[in-house]
Amino acid sequence: MDKDILALIAKGNVKFSKGQKQIAKYIAENYDKAAFMTAKKLGKTVGVSESTVVRFAAELGYDGYPGMRKALQEMIRNRLTSLQRIEVAKDLFDHKDVLHAVLTTDMEKIEVTRGEMDQKSFDEAVEQILAAEHVYIFGMRSSASLASFMGYYLNLIRENVHVIQDMSNSECYEQIVHIKEGDVFIGISYPRYSSRTVKAMRFARSMGSHVIGITDGNNSPFIGIADTNLFAHSEMVSFLDSLVAPLSLINALIVAIGLRTNDALSTAFNRLESIWSEFEVYETLDD
Predict the structure, then answer these.
(1) Which residues are CB-neighbours of 283 under 8 A, at least 6 positions away?
(2) I need a surface site. Which of 106, 131, 160, 285 has the fewest CB within 10 A?
(3) pLDDT score at 94
(4) Which pLDDT belongs to residue 266?
């Protein structure tokens, strides 16, 4: 089956019924809105019955309407502009308790990530990070916060951790110019995917390093580039992406690595506690 649902629709248009052609036309012109509609709402919007919408999904080869809607959502996540995302959010959250809706969505994404996580890939990533001489971490735009968080805690656990600061295209490569076999490069990106992160991953791999990708699924451009891919689901929320599940995955990586280096970790934190106390890093609360 074609990954792009619009290609499927164009391919099958000649044999669609009149009602199905109306659905096809609406999706082709308004895929950003259709991706988040129920079958009932899509049918009402187009002027056909809910059952016609369900049959349309089956005609395209999907098990049901939810499968077609998921395919639409996966297709558009890297296509929508920020303005389009805002418009979609109006339909998603209109007349709803935004706080409850967003928190519920975040919990669902963590649960899906937990259920679909490939334990073998996770264990391989842990082993590679532990064995690496140098670890380079790169994330741009919203993923920069994930890279920074991961780098902060890995740096407390082990030496030679480098979070790449990307101010310009050339500076990125200057910071990884010495990357080599025996090193690990961790790229982090979610829709809309960063082309600079993808290019840096290709460079790191060409230099012989083991490349780990933290991304959202098999539609990511990391596939075929990263030696090890770890998938954590994100969710489009208006003009921003929910990165709760990716952060939880990174937490799990850090904890797993910390447990494997327990003695060194205890020594490092004993030293840090002394430093924090001496320089009054944390506020002391009165009893």
Answers:
(1) none
(2) 285
(3) 60
(4) 86
Q: Note every long-range contact of 218-223, with CB atoms under 8 Å and residues 24 or more positions apart, other chains counting.
A: 219/3, 219/74, 219/75, 219/78, 220/189, 220/193, 221/193, 222/187, 222/189, 222/198
Cα 96 to Cα 93: distance, rounded to the nearest angstrom: 5
The first and second tokens of residue 224, run together, are 């075929």
Asked whether the predicted pLDDT for residue 136 surpasses 70, the reply is yes
Portion of the chain with pLDDT greater than 90, in percent: 54
Backbone Cα Rg of the chain: 23
Is the pLDDT at 233 greater than 70? The verdict is: yes
Beta bridge partners of 187: 138, 213
Question: How much is the pTM?
Answer: 0.75
Give the bridge partners for 163, in sequence order.
137
Q: Which helix (H) or strand (E) covers residue 282, if one does? A: none
Q: Is 205 helix (H, G, I), strand (E, B) or coil?
A: helix
Closest C-alpha among 249, 248, 160 to residue 209: 160
